[in-house]
Design a protein that fits this description.
The chain has five helices and five strands, in the order βββαβαβααα. By secondary structure, it is an alpha/beta fold. α2 links the parallel β4 (48-52) and β5 (70-74).
């Protein structure tokens, strides 16, 4: 098997892989468990791997890059046009990712480092706390009580 591109559909425990050669012909399509995923890719020669961008995609992309592969993350909205109609499942998603990653005008998401992901997580947590604080200040107003919120000192 001499793969050129691989489409990987991520999930919690079961992953779907679609392998194609340079002409786009399907070589393999299989379902892998979490513990089978890295050994599968380590056994492949270096190739182009497409993954739909999500929070865990960055971690998997870093691990696959360490195995010597060229990994690209695709925004989910850019994969959707390549999914066959009426067949939305993990297998067809992997095939659509495999096809989308080979398109010349496709836009990709940069792979974040662990530090970048931690920074984003920190700011999202802070944003949640701010929204909760502002929301709790608005609740008494719904019952007719209004007071000013000032910091003293």
């Amino acid at each position: 098997m001499n793969p050129a591109t691989v489409g990987l559909d991520l999930a919690k425990n079961v992953f779907h892989v679609h392998v194609a050669d340079a002409s786009g012909r399907t070589l393999d399509s299989k379902r892998l468990s979490r513990r089978e995923l890295l050994p599968f890719f380590e056994s492949l020669p270096p190739c182009l791997i497409g993954i739909e961008a999500c929070a865990t995609a960055h971690n998997w992309a870093r691990q696959l890059q360490r195995a010597g592969h060229d990994v690209r993350l695709i925004p989910p909205g850019y994969v959707k046009p390549f999914v066959r109609r009426g067949a939305k499942n993990d297998v067809t998603d992997a095939a659509a990712i495999c096809e989308a990653v080979t398109r010349p005008n496709m836009r990709f998401v940069p792979i974040k480092s662990r530090e970048d992901q931690a920074f984003v997580m920190l700011h999202r947590a802070r944003g949640l706390l701010v929204r909760q604080r502002n929301g709790s200040l608005c609740i008494p107003g719904a019952f007719g009580r209004v007071w000013s919120y000032r910091r003293t000192g």
